[in-house]
Specification:
The complex is a heterodimer of chains A (about 120) and B (about 110).
Chain A lengths: L4 E3 L2 E4 L5 E6 L6 E8 L3 E9 L2 E4 L8 E7 L2 E6 L8 E8 L9 E2 L3 E5 L1
Chain B lengths: L2 E3 L4 E5 L4 E3 L2 E3 L5 E7 L5 E7 L5 E3 L5 E5 L4 E6 L8 E8 L6 E2 L3 E6 L1
Parallel strand pairs in B: 2-12
Antiparallel strand pairs in B: 1-4, 3-9, 5-6, 5-10, 7-8, 8-9, 10-11, 10-12
The chains are: A mainly beta (about 120), B mainly beta (about 110).
Chain lengths: ~120, ~110
């Protein structure tokens, strides 16, 4: 059974460019989470969806960040325009239930470098 | 709001020695507690979780953790580590509202 699939695994771009990160959750999982991992701030929850609907986006840093989930099998996280401080590893995770009692399944992450 | 503190950013330990990774949490309500492990260049995976019941929780790879409500702690232990345990370990807390908050992680270095 395939796990959470993220693409690209690595992205190097220049400041000001648009970046789109993609995620395919595990089939049947109702929840999808986007996290950002940096050395300074650790793992931060950016946004999460339940049944394709955004529930909490309070962790999204600013208007340059947006996330969508057009269907149950696909989500995107977009940064436009990108800045060097956006460099991080971005993880997508899915869960059958909410995180309260359920288990989060993480993808392998997308490492973003903004020059 | 709840928070998680992992007191040690790095822990070196000799192979076959015991290890304890410390985690303290703060919350005004009952919480669920988790330990996740991240191997190099991989995503996180669940090691163990405490939801209710017995305060001693056993997880995969020989790890266990003990929930201590009075000390608001959830320390992770293993009696004998192996080189394959080299990873970063994250303590996490949730109050059951679909949001999980992670600590900053503890890197476990296994020395030969």
């Amino acid at each position: 059974d395939a796990g959470v699939i993220q693409s690209p695994r690595h992205e190097v771009t220049e400041m000001g460019q648009e970046v789109t990160l993609r995620c395919k959750p595990i089939s049947g999982h109702d929840y999808l989470f986007w996290y950002r991992q940096t050395m300074m701030r650790g793992l931060e929850l950016l946004i999460y969806f339940n049944n394709n609907v955004p529930i909490d986006d309070s962790g999204m840093p600013e208007d340059r960040f947006s996330a969508k989930m057009p269907n149950a099998s696909f989500s995107t996280l977009k940064i436009q325009p990108s800045e060097p401080r956006d460099s991080a590893v971005y993880f997508c995770a899915s869960s059958l239930k909410g995180t309260g009692t359920g288990e989060l399944f993480f993808g392998e992450g997308s490492r973003l470098t903004v020059l | 709001a709840q928070s998680v503190t992992q007191l040690d950013s790095q822990v070196p330990v000799f192979e076959e020695a015991p290890v304890e990774l410390r985690c303290n949490y703060s919350s005004s309500v009952s919480v669920y507690l988790f330990w996740y492990v991240q191997y190099p260049n991989q995503g996180l995976q669940l090691l163990l979780k405490y939801l209710s019941g017995s305060t001693l929780v056993k997880g995969i790879n020989g790890f266990e953790a003990e929930f201590n409500k009075s000390q608001t702690s959830f320390h992770l232990r293993k009696p004998s580590v192996h080189i394959s345990d080299t990873a970063e370990y994250f303590c996490a807390v949730s109050k059951g509202d679909d949001k999980i908050i992670f600590g900053k992680g503890t890197r476990l270095h296994i020395l030969p």
